[in-house]
Write a structure and sequence with these properties.
Elements: E1 2-8, H1 13-24, E2 29-35, E3 40-45, H2 50-64, E4 69-71
Antiparallel strand pairs: 1-3, 1-4, 2-3
Helix pairs in contact: 1-2
Amino acid sequence: MRKSYRLDEIDCANCARKLQEELAKLDGVDAVSVNFMTQKLTLSAADDRFDDVLGRVVALAAKIEPDCEIIR
């Protein structure tokens, strides 16, 4: 499954790159893209694990970039 989400308050391209690199390391993430210009996160994960993976992505993103929120 692949879904896109709006990002709120991602401050710079470097922050987006750092966030993307760390999220890509999570177990269950098939692919992830964080685009600073469009303020969008695109996540791909197995259908049966997607909600669990998304929850871990949201939690890790909050730790890495506390001001950034993933709008679901």
